[in-house]
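Homework-ish question, so no full write-ups if that breaks the rules, but can someone show me the predicted structure for this set?
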Amino acid sequence: MATQTRTKTGLLSGDYTIEQKEAILGYLLVAPAVLLVGAVILYPVAYNVYLSFTQVPISPEQSPTWVGLRHYRTLLSSGAFWDALTNTIVFTFFSDTLATAGGLGAALLFNRRFRGRRIARGLMLLPYVAPLIAVAYIWQWLLDPLYGLVPYVLGDLLGLGIGQLDVLNNAGTALWAVVAFDAWRYFPFAFLMIIARLQAIPADMYEAAKIDGASRFAQFKDITLPELKYVLGTVFLLRWIWNFNKFADIWLLTRQVQTLPIYAYQTAFANYNQGQAAAIAMVLFLALMGFVLLYVTWILEW
Amino acid sequence: MLKTILTTTVDGFRAAFGRGRIETSPLERAVFLLAVGTVLLVSLFPFYWMVVTSFMPESAIYSLPPTLVPTEFTLDHYESVFSPETFPFVTYFKNSLIISLLTGGLSVLVATFGAYSFARLEYRGRGLFSRGVLLVYMFSGILLVVPLFQIVVWLGLVDKPSSLVITYLVQTLPVSLYMLGNYFRSVPPEIEEAAIMDGYSRIEVVFRITLPLSAPAIVAVFIYTFMIAWNEYLFASIFLRTQSNFTLPIGLDALSSGFHQVWGQIMAASLMTSIPIVVMFVYLEKYMVEGLTFGSVEG
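A: Not a homework solution, just the prediction itself:
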């Protein structure tokens, strides 16, 4: 590209160099995206910080009144908040671990060639792709206490004696049902990430290990796992972030599990305490950021 | 589904017990096939159960022991799903379709411009913009729920589908920009430069060369955005008020809490809700690995 080429035609009148024109075009093209993100994400996030220090009136005509740290103090002294936080951590940890482990297992299986691998792989992605509302209902139906297949198989066939237990309407069991549901729904995501990395491991590493007489297990421990360390760490972190913020998956399956996002939602739209809800969302965000920072420094060693 | 499981298993057997690998023992092969079969069964059985239940007569659905392989089929559930006096499934479907198509279309437009700018044009602040947009990805829906609701109320956009379209569009932008930007960078710049040398303007080059070459990525972005909009529950549940404006997730949710023991109809509605997504997915599978791996609004 010749610099300082003067042209009098084209996009804009006046004398501009090609570089200047390109820059102007660049700004013009990126403007809609940047403005939208600023207006619909950045501004609301800042506004949420402000709202968390205010009492938001129910009628939109009145403006919020400043209450300082009151919502935060209320939260820290409320049992419901700590329960919700515990539920969030338990749900996130177990659903994340199961989904990552399931993804790793499936990736190791599908790393071998077999006939029909492509179609099998496509079918395996279905839980991840199908609409949430549909799979949530399928699970509700499978777990239906009267005619559901799962209670029948577990109770009547295997005699585990849970009989007519209503898994999704019992606070003790509902949490584990949601953990299982999310692990089932998102293990294909972990699978996709892990298999991509797995197939990039050079075959001659294994060849060399075989010549040295390393067992299958030794090959897995000394080659596969170290090579996958980074992708496993990343998958676990991404799923942690998403599961920590999960709302609809839990809400549509059962109303018996209260995690922080659900607690915030109910506070905002059932009790109409929007300022308090903004504070819950802030605490959720800060707790998550704290975890991410710790994780990135200690586990991933970035 | 069942047929696929069978053929996959048979294929697997052929592969394992036919010619080929000498180093694996029969036991090992059997264990391997059993494992693949188990993974597929766990993944697919719920979908099989959805399809079967949606065609089962009431008497078979509500009986113990459950019938795994039904002998009678009925279209009753589909009839009631499609009859407006029973419940407005068609309305919900239409609303979801309009919102998802609009979101997909707008997303392609805004993301194409933005991603081209990030990928090809030099200007100050480019790196800041492109990295900043990705950072935005860290903010979850729940952090935006209260402020966006306040803003939507203040703007008088409550119960208007447009408020949802804008919300979904912006929430999917980071991933759309990332996907398209990566693709644009893979188009050799020499092609564009040659065209500019030939006297085409930058805009003409984008429309005549870059976009046609990037068609697969653009389709992938459209489908990804469509899927997110099709699925979204949180914002739809707080922005929409009247039933005639409901999208599928909230409409079906309202239905299931209002009735009891209507599993046949609910499975039929779930199947109809899944069809557009599954059709798109079959088309997208090639690009899926790249795009969707990066996740979704709330992954």
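Now go work out the reasoning yourself. Hint: Residues 89-120 of chain B form the longest helix (32 residues).
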